[in-house]
Amino acid sequence: HSKQRKDFSQDIGKILRLIKGQRDHSTIKVDYRVAKTIEDVKEFVDILLKSDWVSYDSETTSLDCLKGEILLTSFSDKPGRAFVIPYKYPGVFTKEEQEIVKIELGRILGSTVKKIMQNGKFDIQFLFADNIPIKMFAFDTMLAHYLLDENSSHGLGNIVPIYTEMGHYKDQVGEYIKGAIKIKVGVNDKGKDIVRNSTILDC
Q: How many CA atoms lie within 13 A of 194 on its CB side?
């Protein structure tokens, strides 16, 4: 098949450039959208439902799904485009609106659209704990990297600089990851931006 041959040739070319230490300097126009209203949430989900595949990531208040909550969710349906849907993020949606967001998240996550995640079992635990349906979890980038190189680190901080042009993108959100920045309603815009950027970049 001509398309498969073309894709295969491009992949081989990327592998050769990686072996030689060369980087692919092509740029992708980015389109990052953050839902600010329930109407935005519904619009984003409608767009995502038209895709064959979407990547999914979440930012949570804890590593323990029985103690923490989902703050933000993010989805990407193609390179350079991401949709951030706040859930229990402080100061965005009321309790009543959060219930609507939960339904909308279930609409895309419980759909037949194939899902890509990094260490998906982590995100799925939080979805189960919040009774949000998840179907068609079809690909895990962490498990895929285990198959490529079982002896190295499999976190995004290690994978991303190797296979993309995003470099050490976690440096941008290091303060949040280390717990140096806490989210407080109305008084911590830097923290809010960092958490939002973290979920976009992870996706």
A: 19
User: CB within 8 A of 134, min separation 6: which ones?
Assistant: 109, 110, 115, 124, 127, 128
Cα-based torsion angle of the residue sequence 51, 200, 91, 109 in order, rounded to the nearest 10 degrees: 30
pLDDT tens readout for residues 159-183: 666 666 655 555 554 444 444 444 4
Instruction: Enter the pTM of the model.
Output: 0.71
Strands (E), the chain: 31-34, 53-60, 70-78, 81-86, 114-117, 137-140
Which helix (H) or strand (E) element contains residue 193?
helix 189-202
* pLDDT at site 183: 43
What tokens were used for 145? 């990297």
Per-residue model confidence as pLDDT tens digits over 93-103: 999 999 999 99
Measured CA angle at 148 (ends 119, 146), to 5 deg:
30
Helix, coil or strand: residue 155? coil
Classify the C-alpha dihedral 126-130-131-135 as positive or negative. negative
* DSSP letter, residue 173: G
Beta strands 81-86 and 137-140 are: unpaired
Other residues' Cβ atoms within 10 Å of the Cβ of residue 20: 8
The pLDDT value given to residue 74:
95
What is the enclosing helix (H) or strand (E) of 41? helix 38-48
